[in-house]
Specification:
Oligomer: single chain
Largest sheet: 5 strands, antiparallel
Distance between the termini: 76 Å
Number of helices: 18
Number of domains: 4
Order of helices and strands: EHHEEEHEHEHHEEEHEHHHHHHHHHHH
Radius of gyration: 32 Å
Strand order of the largest sheet: 8-7-9-6-10
Amino acid sequence: MRLDSDSSLIGETVASAQLRTRYGITIVGVGRQERFTETVSPALANTEFHPADALYVVGPDEAATALCSTERLSRLLIAESQQRSLVNELGMVEVMLPPDSELIGQTLRQAAFRSHHGLSVLGIRRNRQPLPGNLIEEELAFGDILLVAGAWKRIGLLQGEQKHFLVLGLPAELSDVAPAYRQAPFALAILLAMVLAMTFGLVPNVAAVLLAALAMGLFRCLRMEDAYRSINWPSLVVIAGMLPLAKALQQAGGVTLIADGLVAGLGGFGPLALLAGIFVLAALIGMFISNTATAVLIAPVAIAAAQKLGVSPYPFAMTVAVAASAAFVTPVSSPVNTLVLAPGGYRFNDFMRVGLPLLLLTMALTLLVTPLLLPL
């Protein structure tokens, strides 16, 4: 319902208006025009009514008709954009009162339920039957099930008060609602600024990422508790373990030894065979260490082999770049693969089944196209 400019409710609060007592109507949300869009907020006890506010109420149709005619309100049709705002802001859940609940023996008015918890009670079920009439003066009993409505954050807080409330089941919509969706424009602006800073080299990449993370916290796009919970510690350990592995292979000379053997074995079959061998070697090493480390280790060997055969080093360097980036076969071949391993529920065999054919296809295209663009 929309408040007319001459409505008697203007200037009243939700508590002082007493619409539930007088009409049997429960206000669950208040919509207010802000910056070209309507923002829906939960109806708290101290929420004050302003001209042109939209009231989202629950109650019998005849009670709503009486409220509109007496208090000078007009009914509204809810647009699709308003429905999305409602879903993001307001929800409903069933709550049961355990034996030790502080609400037992009290009425909703005595317990000041809306003031203390910021939620509205839409109905009460006792002995599997809904209670009729005005619920605000109904004395609550053990086992009563309350249907409450309000902000998703307030609904989530009820789970932490298990001594007084038992949340029977949070609706599935709760997991789909972004907890800080109002900050989405700030988050997108921060992301864009980070990408631009990295693209144009305004600051080092590490500094750009850290500054973006700091800005996300300053603009309340992310809470520190959520940030810590979102860290995938197994992935972090695997990524950290790759760095000393690459360093050990480089210092021990194991990669160089393998590369020298490959050059000695395939050099007599021509440059194309050696190019294929370089690709296989780079792709094989790239399955277990980062693509950057693979390119650093294999590129000098490939260039030296090309010069020894008297051919152009450019196709060999390009082959190393492509092969080192063809990290499809194992989840540890790239930090990106490792990061999606746990959240996606993938297994090692999933990467093998999809990545190996993709690697072979990449190899065939590289050996076919590279000599055409960069002649040997």
